[in-house]
Amino acid sequence: MTIPADTAPGARIVVPVALEGRAYDIQIGRHQLCEAARLIAAMAPGAKVAVVTDERVAALHAPAFEACLQQEGIGFTRITVPPGEATKSYAQFIALCDALLAAKIERDDIVIALGGGVVGDLTGFAAAVLRRGVRFIQIPTTLLAQVDSSVGGKTGINSSHGKNLIGAFHQPALVIADTALLDTLSEREFKAGYAEVVKYGLIDDPAFFDWCEVNWSRIIAGGPERDHAVAVACKAKAAIVARDEREEGDRALLNLGHTFAHALERLTHYDSARLVHGEAVAIGLALAFRFSQRLGLCSGQDATRVSRHLDAVGLPSTLQQVPGGAGTAQEIVAAMGQDKKVRRGVLTFILARGIGQSFIAHGVAAEEVTAFVEAELATNGQAR
Amino acid sequence: MTIPADTAPGARIVVPVALEGRAYDIQIGRHQLCEAARLIAAMAPGAKVAVVTDERVAALHAPAFEACLQQEGIGFTRITVPPGEATKSYAQFIALCDALLAAKIERDDIVIALGGGVVGDLTGFAAAVLRRGVRFIQIPTTLLAQVDSSVGGKTGINSSHGKNLIGAFHQPALVIADTALLDTLSEREFKAGYAEVVKYGLIDDPAFFDWCEVNWSRIIAGGPERDHAVAVACKAKAAIVARDEREEGDRALLNLGHTFAHALERLTHYDSARLVHGEAVAIGLALAFRFSQRLGLCSGQDATRVSRHLDAVGLPSTLQQVPGGAGTAQEIVAAMGQDKKVRRGVLTFILARGIGQSFIAHGVAAEEVTAFVEAELATNGQAR
Ligand SMILES: NC(=O)c1ccc[n+]([C@@H]2O[C@H](COP(=O)([O-])OP(=O)(O)OC[C@H]3O[C@@H](n4cnc5c(N)ncnc54)[C@H](O)[C@@H]3O)[C@@H](O)[C@H]2O)c1
Ligand SMILES: NC(=O)c1ccc[n+]([C@@H]2O[C@H](COP(=O)([O-])OP(=O)(O)OC[C@H]3O[C@@H](n4cnc5c(N)ncnc54)[C@H](O)[C@@H]3O)[C@@H](O)[C@H]2O)c1
To answer: How far apart, in Å, are the Cα atoms of A381 and each of A198, A303, A304, A375, B43?
Structure first.
């Protein structure tokens, strides 16, 4: 399979997100930080900028971006938060809001998230509620953030009751996915993000899944395949978000694998030493396909193909691979029941009739899920 | 002046708020709590309800409302916050979000604010961000909340940097203004709310100001004049909000008197023992007219008429009436500069060419304001 012409080396791919009144572009390519600064200067002449980042990204990439801002004569403040999921907390949210107010960020100014999904979700939420909403730009620096969290306007923080329970829909004014920033990402974080890439193939694009099976190592290595993969993912997400911004229908398809994933993250206390989001999603994807198989919806062949690909990439695909253990079937299902995708106590699942044939299944009985998880725990996912 | 037929005793006045896709009604009348419960049952069959209220209102009115909910078979949880402006804090926001999550309020459930503007603003903000937005109903129990804060969807909390700096636009699904609930309001709080009533006359309805001069004591006493005043205020606010939901233009007119008022509240540390919001607004209205007079925009006659009416009602109209003093002119203007209505450091003011002839004045020089406030402090507002 060849890469389309628009991802030839050096090219920049623009993916528009068609939202009435709040349309914006995702720009994908290598070395886009100064291009980002140029776009900001054009979009908001005279505006102040707050660059929110985490300590790790600050050390690696903030100076380069700030040099670009300086070149454009844009005044900026840097606000740094600790890295890690624990940063999506009430306490960090308050500290960030107060730091933005102290920096005198006003309604016409711009708040920029330079970091992974944690920085993006926290910063987007703060931007959504600061003065009831200020402009917000995403410069995602992880693969996961480039293909998923920076697109679509979901922002938020966690509560002790669960992940992302406090948040807002707040669309960015621009997303710059500089794929060269990913060169410094750890292999583990890169692969975790890759789980979200492959998800788009599993949802409704079997040809893209085929392409991933062949090209995954080149995506990791960098180069045009990486840009192509990010672009395909962004296009897919942008299309779903444009159809259903507030997740009242279709958008729930993006949660393929996530009901399991969120339960696993909850049970491992969001401890990234044990499990990062993308790893939880990888297990969730494999489980969603095996659960679909068990329900007689999907062939064993397709379910096995999903797990095999995740295994090949070096991603986990079974509950046994959760370091320290995931818990009992009852604990896992109870942790799912906490999910915000539950309406009036009924479980909603994304299931699949095959690779690229996912659908939203309402009213899945908790006992079905429990029985499946029990079988998984007993057989190490070999019950397929 | 006579009261229109639609406010005859016993009648219920319905004011529609025409917002594309999120239209809702304000229902005004005496003894509407069971009507509210009936509407909720019809709007959301099977939904759970969280009733958020403050300790004072809980003691006075929550049992009556909950009896109505019970009669309709609606399951509910009561969540009580302390009364007072200090409740619009990060800490109370977090406590409320967690209480709503503990009550398992999901996306299809309903959060109700039963209280004054403090309960409404805090609860509305929590409803806006809980699970990225749950349905929200306002049952305002102060005059200020019935004529102002419950209508229009502005919600939020305070930061140490200023009032309402953290918040969201989140329209209620319904507003029930039960004017009988105001019978238990202290005279001081009632009069404070009255400042916002009279504001609508001053903005663009001189005939309503005339009517208020004649009927104010009957509004306080209760009866059809009260319902009429609430309805006129709600209609006026609904019309402005429908034109400009996000305060990008016209809606700023509603801030008549508020740039001064917010500065005074800030300088008195939001201490309601010294100054409540409506009292600050009363002083702000008088100042806005005297400032307009000083700028040669408005006749001294009109400015005097405004102050005289506030005096007659028993509301403050000068800086000298701020208990403990308002501070120096420099302090007052500096406190204004913090206001979120400042864009890129330029002061925006609502000024008036006369009663019912207010307009938005951009780029008012800080020195002009300082000189005016100095004169006010020197002359006790007698410089008119
Ligand atoms: N808003 C959404 O729609 C959405 C969608 C999916 C996931 N999410 C959220 O995203 C979060 C996970 O995002 P994530 O995986 O990006 O995690 P993350 O932001 O914690 O980043 C992972 C780690 O990589 C480091 N890092 C970031 N960029 C780097 C770079 N270029 N080089 C080296 N290190 C770098 C970070 O410091 C961090 O330690 C979760 O909180 C999840 O809930 C949100
Ligand atoms: N959202 C908006 O558009 C908007 C507009 C204007 C004002 N506000 C906000 O509203 C707040 C002020 O509202 P408020 O004046 O209603 O204050 P409040 O909510 O503090 O109520 C004032 C006092 O009256 C008590 N109370 C309430 N109802 C009562 C009743 N029926 N009987 C007896 N006591 C009762 C309360 O317990 C409180 O002690 C401020 O925070 C202000 O910023 C918001």
So the answer is: 20, 10, 10, 8, 45
- For the cut 50, the answer to whether the pLDDT of residue B63 exceeds it is yes
The two counts, helices (H) then strands (E), for chain A are: 14, 11
DSSP state of A149: I
Residues near ligand 1 (Cβ within 6 A): A 54, 56-57, 60, 83-85, 88, 115-119, 121, 141-142, 144-145, 148-149, 152, 154, 163-164, 181-182, 184-185, 189, 192, 276-278
List B360's β-bridge partners, or say none. Answer: B350
Q: Tokens 């624990």 appear where? A: A86
What's the confidence (pLDDT) of residue A5?
A: 47
The conformation of residue A180, written as its DSSP 8-state character, comes to G
Token pair for residue B305? 């008429």
Does residue B81 surpass a pLDDT of 70? yes
Superfamily of domain B256-384: Dehydroquinate synthase-like - alpha domain (1.20.1090.10)
Cα B243 to Cα A343, B19, B236, B237, B253: the distances in Å are 34, 9, 11, 10, 12
C-alpha to C-alpha distance for A365 and A347, rounded to whole angstroms: 7
Which of A105, A106, A166 would you mutate first to test chain B, the one with the most B CBs within 10 A? A166
User: Which residue lies with its CA nearest to atom 14 of ligand 2?
Assistant: B117
Domain boundaries, chain A: 5-184, 256-384
The reported pTM is: 0.93
Cα B255-B260-B263 angle, rounded to 5 deg = 115
Ligand 2 centroid to residue A152 C-alpha, Å = 36
ipTM comes to 0.90
Q: Which two tokens stand for residue A8?
A: 């030839």
pLDDT tens-digit readout, A211-265? 999 999 999 999 899 999 999 999 999 999 998 888 888 889 999 999 999 999 9
Q: Quick one: CATH architecture of B5-184? A: 3-Layer(aba) Sandwich (3.40)
